[in-house]
Design goal:
- The complex is a heterodimer of chains A (503) and B (168).
- Chain A is an all-alpha fold.
- Chain A has helices at residues 2-14, 17-35, 41-48, 57-82, 91-102, 106-139, 144-161, 166-181, 206-224, 238-247, 252-267, 272-286, 298-314, 316-322, 328-339, 348-351, 353-385, 389-408, 411-430, 435-458, 469-482, 484-502; strands spanning 183-184, 191-192.
- The longest helix of chain B has 26 residues, at 14-39.
- Chain B has 168 residues and is mostly helical.
- The termini of chain B are far apart.
- Chain B has a two-stranded antiparallel ribbon. A two-stranded antiparallel ribbon of chain B has the order 2-3.
- Classes of the chains: A mainly alpha (503), B mainly alpha (168).
């Protein structure tokens, strides 16, 4: 029950008027970010990060995490009304959400989406409250080999859970590591990969990469489609909300399954996007109305939204407890922690109790605030989407430029942002995944130093990563994930002759 | 290269972009491996040298891009998928070129004036809005950014002659 005491202490920190105001500001900003094309959770928070440097870390993380919840809510609005997923994790929401809007049931779809998002987040936060301290105290015993094997598992999971070409996933990831290595080597003090350019001394900052890859890249992609959007109108009134709430308990089984998928996919670095697809797929297979999915089933909105929000929330668990983010947005928050002078990792739970429990308490309050804001302000947010893209596009470029400049007060970063934008556009079109690249850029230095320390301990012997059951099983899992595409292809080939004979 | 004009839809074929990108990635990987080798990718008396870790990173980049390159070469003649059509390229350039000019403007005359000009001109030319609305939105965004960053949060952004004239 130690956790409950700590949690109540957290509530007392989060409930100050200042922090509550920040919470609402964060949610509203987050929904706007989630609704606008070209701004998403990751780059939205990256741009707003410099504004929080003057706040206390607890207030800052409360506001930024609320932006994150808001962005998760906001993605659903565009999916349902405009058939345009504002965020990648709301793609699966369009499958049934947009048909519902076409039938004039947009209000019902959105109430369902918001409520199930809320349920998913709540379950994930509950899990978070009780599991995070355990994970953190467990991780206190980790040495460099253990940490490196966790990093290895993080990155190999991208290969195992990713749908695309595994070689492209590894190539993108390794490019991230290479970018992280640019600059001064912190251990020997030597210059690496700078080729005589003094501008490269401090290396590539991942916030600039995030703003370029996700912000400018997304704008370029949206421009391909032309300048006009068209969508349905939404009316939400208390009657629709209550009627939808009466229907929702029917889908309890789908909800529970989606929560489990979401929590699991959030902790292992798969993130919200695959979680939402997986949950939609499972719901379609298990539901009695499975064959009607895609024609406007409320259940088809509930499943992906619950999972996306649960995954988005639980992605913060490895970020806080191990210092290893499960998604690009969590990576940006991690970057924020370091800038505020906090060292993410298991010690955070020992040394920064106010910060950790304030954040956890704000997750409960922020999601309640989020639900209230989105249910009451939908028409307002939908109106933002009606602003033509020829106004939105240049304004977002300006916002991104300001964000890139404020990272280090460096003009070169604004140029880098444009370059990263083009890279992001080309990579997205060619299916090179951006998330592992950003995570590698963020974690590159930490992963390298844990690897080098492990090598120092073992004098260059790689078997140190199998030296005890803990590190051995982590490394083993990592290798399994890395070779999973190969293994599953082999299994499919072994199975297919038999299956072919049976049918 | 003659056959890529044969495809029905005018545009750049995905396979060609795929090959070019894989080749660039290979070159980057080789560069990383080379520079790490130069720094020393082995062991010194005090442990792993600076190039120890990045050398293998570079090597992995080269291996993966070689595979992607080979996969691309194998379906070079069969895959007719179009990467971008000519009209899509035009659409993308409509925002990319002004954005690049805008960044140059930020460097030369400061962020506030160039932002106002960029937004107003983009709305006027690409969005066909009236001059009044275009200028109003451009100036509005710039002034609110100025108030927010210079006055409220005290975060200095690049400034030019106009701001200096106003005493900032």
């Amino acid at each position: 029950m130690e956790e409950l005491n700590a949690l109540f202490h957290g509530f007392s920190i989060a409930m100050t008027p200042f922090n509550l105001t920040l919470m609402f500001v964060g949610i509203i900003l987050g929904v706007i970010i989630g609704v606008l094309p070209g701004l998403g959770g990751a780059n939205g928070i990256a741009i707003l990060l410099p504004l929080t440097f003057t706040m206390s870390p607890t207030s800052a993380i409360i506001m930024l995490s609320c932006i994150y919840w808001g962005a998760l809510f906001g993605g659903a609005i565009t999916s349902i009304l405009f058939n345009i997923p504002g965020e990648p994790w709301s793609v699966a929401t369009t499958f049934d959400g947009y048909p519902m809007a076409q039938q004039g049931r947009a209000g019902e779809a959105m109430t369902g989406a918001f409520t199930s998002s809320f349920v998913g987040a709540l379950v994930a936060v509950l899990m978070f409250t009780f599991i995070a301290p355990l994970v953190a105290s467990f991780a206190l015993q980790f040495g460099p080999p253990e940490f490196f094997s966790v990093y290895l598992l993080t990155f190999c999971s991208f290969v195992g859970t990713g749908k695309g070409n595994p070689f492209k996933i590894v190539a993108a990831m390794m490019l991230g590591f290479a970018m992280a290595a640019v600059g001064i080597d912190i251990i020997t003090g030597q210059l690496r990969l700078t080729f005589g350019f003094t501008e490269l001394l401090s290396g590539f900052h991942f916030l600039v990469a995030v703003i370029g890859l996700f912000g400018i890249g997304e704008i370029l992609l949206s421009m391909e489609e032309g300048l006009s959007f068209s969508g349905h109108t939404a009316k939400i009134n208390p009657k629709i909300v209550l009627e939808t709430w009466k229907k929702l308990p029917r889908y309890w089984a789908t909800s529970i399954r989606s929560c489990i998928i979401g929590c699991w996919m959030g902790i292992i670095p798969g993130g919200a996007t695959p979680a939402s697809f997986m949950s939609y797929g499972v719901a379609r297979r298990m539901s009695r109305n499975g064959d009607k999915f895609g024609t406007g089933q409320l259940e088809g909105v509930v499943a992906p939204e619950t999972a996306a929000h649960a995954a988005g929330t639980s992605a913060l668990l490895p970020m806080l407890t191990l210092g290893i983010p499960g998604s690009p947005t969590a990576a940006v928050l991690l970057g924020g922690l370091m800038i505020w002078g906090l060292q993410p990792g298991p010690l955070l739970f020992v040394e920064q109790k106010d910060f950790v429990w304030g954040l956890i308490a704000s997750m409960y309050l922020g999601n309640i605030a989020g639900l209230i804001v989105v249910l009451t302000c939908v028409p307002l947010f939908a109106a933002i989407l009606r602003v033509p893209f020829s106004i939105i596009a240049p304004v977002i470029v300006v916002i991104c430029a300001i964000g890139a400049f404020t990272v280090k007060n460096n003009m070169l970063d604004v140029w880098m942002m444009i370059v990263f934008g083009v890279v992001g556009y080309v990579f997205k079109k060619l299916d090179y995944p951006l998330a592992p690249m950003v995570l590698a850029l963020v974690l590159g230095d930490a992963a390298e130093s844990s690897f080098r320390q492990s090598m120092l301990i073992s004098q260059g012997d790689l078997t140190v990563f199998f030296s005890n059951w803990l590190v051995g099983s982590l490394t083993g899992l990592a290798l399994l994930a890395l070779f999973w595409p190969l293994i599953s292809a082999l299994l499919a080939r072994l199975r297919s002759p038999g299956a072919g004979g049976a049918t | 290269m003659a056959h890529d004009h044969e495809s029905a839809q005018a545009g750049i074929r995905t396979v060609l972009v795929e090959l070019a990108v894989a080749a660039i990635i290979f070159a980057l990987g080789a560069l990383v491996a080379y520079d790490s080798y130069r720094l020393g990718s082995g062991w010194a008396s005090d442990g792993p040298q600076s190039g120890y870790f990045p050398f293998y990173i570079g090597l992995f980049i080269c291996i993966c891009s070689t595979v992607v390159l080979a996969q691309g070469l194998l379906r070079r003649n069969t895959d007719q998928q179009v990467f971008v059509t000519v009209s899509q390229v035009k659409q993308v350039l409509v925002i990319l070129l002004p954005s690049t000019v805008y960044v140059l403007g930020v460097q030369l005359i400061g962020i506030y004036v160039s932002s106002a000009l960029f937004i107003a001109l983009f709305m006027r030319i690409a969005g066909k809005y009236s001059w009044i609305r275009s200028v109003a939105v451009g100036a509005g965004v710039s002034v609110s950014a100025f108030v927010m960053f210079e006055i409220w949060f005290k975060i200095p952004l690049p400034k030019g002659p106009l701001e200096r004239l106003l005493g900032y």
